[in-house]
């Protein structure tokens, strides 16, 4: 097997067509499939997680934080909407950064996204297991069995074929949105905004009569609420990973991304306004809840149908789990096909043409992390470590990937103006700069204000160190001319010419 050395300390191993024949994907997705993939990945954050910001900044602080994070994601989604049809490859964030910043930039960007897509479904599986344990009254010792069941079922759906995968994604996403819509309609007659939504006072104390200030903790409360507002949009950026399975990525990718962002924005504002306003709950109680939507349903309909409502609430978690497992497999597949990860992980199923080995590997790592924490941590610490530290690790990877993707957009605009862009970002470079600034501030707030976040960073650093060592010692000498790499090299030659 011969090699070709290029700049940046990397070399490409020549592979014949048989290599790529064993790594082929099938095109199936249209704009609505892509919309469902993006919305489905995020929607669990509208069922739970976002509400912790109510104790940090009160309702007003959480609203301002949501608007700020919305600006960050608006800049990000517009940038992705331009880059993804211009570089329609499965690599997504890695692909953008590879063309903009070279092999090391592409690899590091792909690595930050890898942390997000391996750990996020593990956390969602934990929440699904918690719900199912409560519904079926199984002992805590059965939790790992629920996690394994989640992975087996939904990795299985994703492995069976791209048509089934997108069909399931569309169905569960629509059901999750119908569940949210049912809550919004049910909540309207029970809303007492001033009494309940504004029941958080300075320092996060409860105001029994409500009617407190909009910003009980001032501007610092807004800053501290930023990480929680991220959960209302986290993972919308995964859509470019479906580029090679899209029927017409140049047309459908921008439509799917922007329509998904619009849907999530409407849902985020509705759930933020109505859930804390329902009589009998309030922002203070909701801020400490692990199941805010379920608490809202209970306040409206009583405890009687609680188990049925809990099953309904699981829909949002299932939608996100299924969608992120899809992204996890494609993200590992793209880095493996190009040689950044071991190449056997990118082999696709002979008949179904799905990256089954990549998905199985990601599932094994996610389950391994979950079970290691479950069996090694103290009984009182398991939930907080998995539910907060692991999720913070995923958010850490996401924020870094946003910074790298926005930087890639800026560099592609400046250094590669001749790339054909079917969609052009109307926010341009200022929108990307805003994304970088807000993501950096969010990272800083979490590092300074959240000890569990700092603990999670150590775990991310270990994973980064292992992967970087592999790439430095082996991977960079054996890269493969995958579509992402060929595109980057070709545009690099054009720029020099």
From TrEMBL:
Broad class of the protein's primary localization: membrane
Disulfide bond is among the record's keywords: no
Domain Amino acid permease/ SLC12A: 40-449
TM helices/strands, residue ranges: 32-50, 62-81, 117-136, 142-161, 168-187, 214-236, 257-274, 308-327, 357-377, 383-407, 427-449, 455-474
Cross-referenced Gene3D superfamilies: Amino acid/polyamine transporter I
Keywords: Membrane, Transmembrane, Transmembrane helix
GO cellular component: membrane
Its membrane topology: Multi-pass membrane protein
InterPro entries: AA-permease/SLC12A_dom, APC_superfamily
Gene Ontology process terms (BP): transmembrane transport
Subcellular location: Membrane
Superkingdom of source: Bacteria
Classification via Pfam families: AA_permease
PANTHER family xref list: AMINO ACID TRANSPORTER-RELATED, MEMBRANE PROTEIN
This protein's name: Ethanolamine:proton symporter, EAT family
Organism per entry: Devosia lucknowensis
């Amino acid at each position: 097997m011969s090699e070709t050395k290029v700049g940046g300390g990397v070399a490409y191993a020549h592979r014949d067509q048989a290599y790529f024949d064993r790594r082929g994907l099938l095109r199936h997705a249209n704009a609505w499939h892509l919309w469902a993939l993006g919305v489905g990945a995020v929607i669990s954050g509208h069922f739970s997680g976002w509400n912790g910001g109510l104790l940090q900044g009160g309702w007003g602080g959480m609203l301002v934080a949501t608007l700020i994070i919305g600006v960050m994601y608006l800049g990000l989604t517009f940038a992705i909407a331009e880059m993804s049809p211009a570089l329609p490859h499965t690599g997504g964030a890695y692909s953008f950064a590879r063309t903009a910043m070279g092999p090391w930039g592409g690899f590091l960007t792909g690595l930050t996204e890898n942390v997000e897509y391996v750990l996020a479904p593990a956390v969602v599986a934990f929440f699904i297991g918690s719900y199912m344990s409560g519904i079926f009254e199984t002992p805590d010792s059965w939790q790992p069995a629920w996690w394994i069941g989640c992975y087996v079922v939904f990795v299985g759906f994703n492995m069976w074929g791209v048509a089934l995968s997108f069909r399931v994604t569309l169905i569960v996403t629509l059901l999750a949105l119908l569940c949210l819509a049912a809550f919004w309609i049910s909540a309207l007659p029970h809303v007492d905004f001033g009494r309940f939504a504004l029941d958080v006072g300075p320092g996060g104390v409860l105001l029994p009569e409500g009617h407190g200030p909009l910003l009980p903790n001032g501007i610092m409360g807004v800053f501290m609420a930023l990480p929680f507002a991220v959960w209302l949009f986290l993972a919308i950026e995964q859509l470019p990973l479906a580029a090679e399975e899209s029927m017409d990525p140049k047309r459908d990718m921008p439509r799917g991304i922007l329509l998904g962002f619009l849907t999530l924005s409407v849902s985020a504002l509705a759930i933020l306004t109505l859930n804390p306003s329902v009589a009998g709950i309030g922002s203070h109680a909701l801020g400490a809840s692990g199941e805010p939507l379920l608490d809202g349903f209970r306040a409206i309909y009583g405890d009687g149908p609680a188990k049925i409502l809990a099953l309904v609430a699981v829909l949002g978690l299932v939608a996100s789990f299924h969608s992120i497992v899809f992204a996890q497999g494609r993200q590992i597949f793209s880095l493996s096909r190009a040689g950044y990860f071991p190449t056997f992980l990118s082999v696709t199923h002979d008949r179904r043409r799905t990256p089954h080995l990549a998905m199985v590997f990601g599932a094994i790592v996610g389950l391994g992390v979950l079970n290691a924490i479950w069996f090694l941590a103290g009984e009182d610490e398991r939930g907080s470590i998995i539910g907060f530290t692991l999720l913070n690790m995923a958010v850490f990877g996401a924020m870094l990937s946003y910074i790298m993707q926005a930087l890639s957009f800026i560099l592609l605009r400046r250094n590669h103006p001749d790339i054909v862009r079917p969609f052009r970002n109307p926010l341009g470079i200022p929108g990307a700069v805003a994304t970088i600034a807000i993501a950096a501030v969010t990272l800083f707030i979490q590092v300074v204000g959240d000890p569990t976040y700092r603990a999670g960073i150590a775990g991310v650093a270990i994973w980064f160190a292992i992967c970087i060592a592999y790439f430095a010692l082996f991977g960079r000498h054996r890269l493969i001319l995958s579509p992402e790499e060929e595109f980057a090299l070709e545009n690099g030659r054009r720029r020099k010419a």
